[in-house]
Amino acid sequence: FGIPSMVSESPFKIYIGNIPTYLTDDQVIELLLTFGQLKSFILVKDNMTGTSKGFAFCEYSDTNVTDIACTGLNNMELGDRRIIVQRASVGSRTNQLPSQMMGMQPGVMPMGVPGGLLPSNLTGDNIQPTTILQLLNMVGNDELVDDEEYNDILEDVRDECGKFGTVEMLKIPRPVEGVKVNGVGKIFVKFQNVSEATTALRALAGRKFADRTVIVSYLTESDFYSENF
Fold first, then answer.
1. Are 155 and 193 members of one domain?
2. C-alpha closest to that of 40 among 70, 82, 12
3. Judging by beta carbons within 10 Å of its beta carbon (0-12, 13-18, 19+), is residue 118 exposed, middle or buried?
4. What tens digit of pLDDT does each residue of 41-94 get?
5. What is the pTM of this model?
6. How many domains, the chain?
7. Degrees, nearest 5: CA angle 32-43-16
8. Quick one: pLDDT at residue 127?
9. How many other CB atoms are found less than 10 A from the CB of residue 42?
């Protein structure tokens, strides 16, 4: 993407924590770009191995986007985790804390400790696997409006997900003019069991679909059936 990796200290610097470590720079950037162009971005990596430490910093070109992006992305399920997204400088009156720890509020610290300083099973940040996956960044509204394109997408997703198990239900909400429809832009797939869903999540996360990087996470059955998505 050619985005500068020097994120300057400013009120508009954003911290993104608890990122699944298998996601690449480009995949995290694609997610952030849904809210606007980036002025700078860095995914923090281990100096020795080059592997992601699971947290990043960025700044948007349009500073008005800062709070909108933080609200929209914070606590979003990404893979098997929920990401933490907030201004890096929130609540920090001094510069004595390491920059990646700035802005962490009491009680939030264990989830946001960079680099996984606590075992993940103690932090409560891992999402309980379910039989249902939600696929993000795969379809645009224009594709969902056209009947032919919509049916092609349904067939493609059913075929692809069918490689990993039995697809019991497939939901792709469509936009309706003048009506707020929950989950438009997302695809929901219910498998026969959790192991099939987990296999599919690992295989599909980070894959390309129509030049978009697919983002996959679990969805609870209650949210699925109540259409709380």
1. yes
2. 12
3. middle
4. 999 998 889 999 999 999 999 999 999 899 888 888 787 788 999 998 754 333
5. 0.51
6. 2
7. 55
8. 60
9. 15
In this prediction, residue 119 carries a pLDDT of 31
Q: Which amino acid is at 171?
A: K
From start to end of 71-155, where are the E strands?
A: 77-78, 81-82, 84-87, 132-136
Strand order in the sheet with 84-87: 38-45, 52-60, 14-17, 84-87
Expressed as residue numbers, the domain containing 74 is 14-123
Separation between Cα atoms, residue 51 and residue 78, nearest integer Å: 18
Scan for tokens 């969805």, then name that residue: 219
Domain end residue (candidates: 71, 101, 123):
123
C-alpha–C-alpha distance, residues 137 and 175, integer Å: 16
* Model confidence band, residue 213 (pLDDT cutoffs 50, 70, 90): confident
